[in-house]
Specification:
Length: 243
């Protein structure tokens, strides 16, 4: 069985540069990359790093896939995860919005998820998925319990996710329903980069990468995925000698 590789970086800046090196390399190898890009705080340094290297990157053929979105929230809403992705990543890199495959919140959720999956199938699946990890072990909004076959779907957010989301925009009301790319689609990605930073993530990183593979920790299924690299800073890493 493949085992996730772990790159332990000095700090968050080092993590962001290390992840950017990897993404830039994959883009150079395959300019028509199908790239799934998470939001959340953790990948923001990576995106800023890629933006700073913009002149050296050819993003003209990349397709960016959204990971998750709050139900009923459109891009013009300040809580929109798509809006966050556009502001932090695709727009400053010069990737036009028609190169983004989104979870369409303007239509019925089941139809939006089916359309996303169909587009992904036609595109040939994800080449690279950039993921963060929730403190309850979620990937995207695949909340525990989520098994490896969970499809792209509408979900109810856990109390923990609602709390984390509230932290993104202060006192804004947090929706309790969301659309997420499924475990099934994420785990089928030809490559996955998992990013985690800071001591609060240490316990869940340990469970995800070294604990039992269980729907109670959806990220633990990464132990069974194809080519996974966890890019962590020291604070988020707990090696065996430090257990
Ligand atoms: C959020 C999002 C995920 C994100 C994760 C970690 O709730 N649904 O897509 O990867 O939790 O977020 P952060 O990077 O802010 O810790």
């Amino acid at each position: 069985m493949p085992v996730p590789s772990v790159l332990v970086c000095e700090d968050y800046a080092d993590l962001s540069r290390t992840a950017a090196d990897l993404v830039a390399e994959r883009l150079a190898q395959k300019p028509a990359l199908n790239l799934l890009a998470a939001t959340g705080n953790t990948p923001m340094g990576l995106y800023a790093e890629l933006v700073s290297r913009r002149d050296a990157l050819d993003v003209s053929r990349v397709r960016v896939f959204q990971l998750d979105e709050y139900a009923g929230v459109g891009i013009e809403d300040r809580r929109s995860l798509l809006g966050w992705l556009v502001r932090s990543f695709t727009a400053p890199l010069g990737i036009p919005e028609d190169r983004i495959v989104r979870l369409d919140t303007a239509i019925e959720p089941a139809a939006a998820c089916a359309a996303f999956e169909e587009t992904l199938r036609e595109a040939g699946g994800f080449d690279l998925a950039i993921l963060g990890i929730g403190s309850n072990g979620h990937l995207g909004f695949n909340e525990p319990p989520s098994d490896a076959g969970a499809p792209t779907r509408e979900v109810t957010l856990s109390a923990q996710s609602v709390e984390t989301s509230a932290g993104y925009w202060g006192d804004a009301e947090v929706p309790t329903r969301a659309l997420t790319v499924g475990m099934r689609e994420l785990l089928a990605s030809r490559e996955i980069v998992l990013l985690a930073s800071g001591a609060p993530k240490r316990a869940i990183v340990r469970r995800a990468l070294g604990g039992a593979v269980t729907p109670e920790v959806p990220a633990s299924f990464l132990q069974e995925a194809k080519r996974v690299t966890a890019v962590l800073d020291r604070a988020a890493w707990c090696g065996e000698d430090e257990a």
